[in-house]
Amino acid sequence: MNTPSDVGEFELIRRYFQHHEAQRDDSHAQRGVVLGIGDDAALLRLPEGTDLVAAVDTLVAGRHFLPGTAARSIGYRALAVNLSDLAAMGATPAWATLALTIPSANAHWLQEFSDGVFDIARQHGVILVGGDTTRGPLTVSVQILGSVPRGAALRRGGAKAGDVLAVSGTLGDAGAGLKFAAAAPGAVDRSGARAAAVDALIRRFDYPTPRVQLGLAARGVASAAMDISDGLAGDLPKLAAASNLHAHVYVERLPLSAALCTTVSEAQAREWALCAGDDYELLLAASPANYPQLDAAARQLNLTLTIIGELSSGSGVSWSAEGADYTPAASGFDHFGQASTQITV
Ligand code: ADP
Ligand code: MG
After folding, report:
1. Residue 158, class by beta-carbon neighbours within 10 Å (0-12 exposed, 13-18 middle, 19+ buried)?
2. What is the pLDDT of residue 193?
3. CA 221 from centre of chain
4. Hey, what's the torsion of the CAs at 300, 197, 225, 296, to 10 degrees?
5. What is the 12 CA–ligand 2 centroid distance (Å)?
6. Burial of 204 (0-12, 13-18, 19+ CB in 10 A)
7. N or C, which terminus of the chain has less Cβ within 10 Å?
8. Residues 262, 266, 272, 274, CA torsion sign
9. Are 137 and 102 in contact (CB under 8 A)?
10. Residue 22 DSSP symbol
11. What CA–CA distances, in Å, run from 233 to 58, 237, 312, 317?
12. pLDDT digits (tens, 9 = 90+) for 153-210
């Protein structure tokens, strides 16, 4: 690599990524790490009878997070969004690799960043097994690897006509948080109870909570799953298309948090719930017969699950609110599309 400034490349890797206290040898053995950071590549052993599940996501400064975002949040989020993809497959996360591009090797920034990465890694038993470090515009790319019993992965295409559609948690919070964080100082009303609500929403953007345990519980119960990263209006059509079905959503059923409803109108809250993205909640399809089992599993995890609609034969997605047709204002985030709703810096 091209060594970033003051701390040398090897010292940087050693200090911030290899010898972090979360990377202990006993957890290595438990997670099938034959060889971790330090050689040309990692050697990893999958549990018997499993499929390898792999996903990668890149966060670019100014594109996926605001310039000046806390390094801890950047590290945390980079792994969280990948964990969310594994959750959507019903997979058990095990290992991650990290490609880090930084303009300079600032010790404080690196410490905060690595604390964020290892905070969420520890919560989910993920071992960092390798990576790459280069100098350039701040970009963080994490690859996550995990496993699922052979043939048991959840997919987008497994739903059946008659299935209900459900989402975990609440929608729109992170999108609202990003908009508040990006607003000019003083532009967001923080009077009274709104101050705590605004902070809570910004935290939802900075520190997503991937629903890994729910994904595991949904295996063999849900018929299809995906995570909501680009907004329900952008993501649901993908599940409907993969399952060759029509999806209908009752917009008045969308789960909205108290924090969101404290800060904006219901109409605005609904729009952000549909279009703003960055929720990292799970969208699940299940037969009406299986749904109670899914709901019970969510309850055990202290998570709410809300039925928002259903699937039927046909194609495409339709929306209604209080019985009338509804059209989401934007259809979710598409990096190369016209209707970009995400930060422009
Ligand atoms: P190579 O040049 O053979 O690709 P490097 O010198 O770039 O190897 O890296 C040395 C070791 O450190 C490798 O095991 C690599 O996976 C690991 N590594 C490099 N950067 C990071 C990082 N940001 N996070 C975790 N591991 C890293
Ligand atoms: Mg090499």
Report:
1. middle
2. 84
3. 21
4. 20
5. 17
6. buried
7. C
8. positive
9. no
10. T
11. 22, 7, 17, 9
12. 999 999 999 999 999 999 999 999 999 999 888 888 888 889 999 999 999 999 999 9
Closest ligand 1 atom, CA of 97?
25
302, HSE (Cβ side, Cα atoms, 13 Å): 1
What digits encode the pLDDT tens for the residues 38-66? 999 999 999 999 999 999 999 999 888 88
Instruction: Report the separation in Å between the CA atom of 77 and the middle of ligand 2, taken as the mean of its atom positions.
Output: 28
Going by alpha carbons, the residue nearest to atom 16 of ligand 1 is 130
Q: What is the pTM of this model?
A: 0.92
Place of tokens 């404080």: 108
Pocket of ligand 1 (CB under 6 A): 1, 13, 17, 37-40, 98, 100, 128, 130-133
Atom 1, ligand 1: residue with shortest CA distance: 40
By DSSP bridging, strand 127-135 and strand 92-102 are: parallel
Q: Which of 3, 12, 13 to mutate to test the pocket of ligand 1 (most atoms within 8 A of CB)?
A: 13
* Interatomic CA distance for residues 294 and 262, integer angstroms: 30
Which residues is 281 bridged to in the sheet?
A: 228
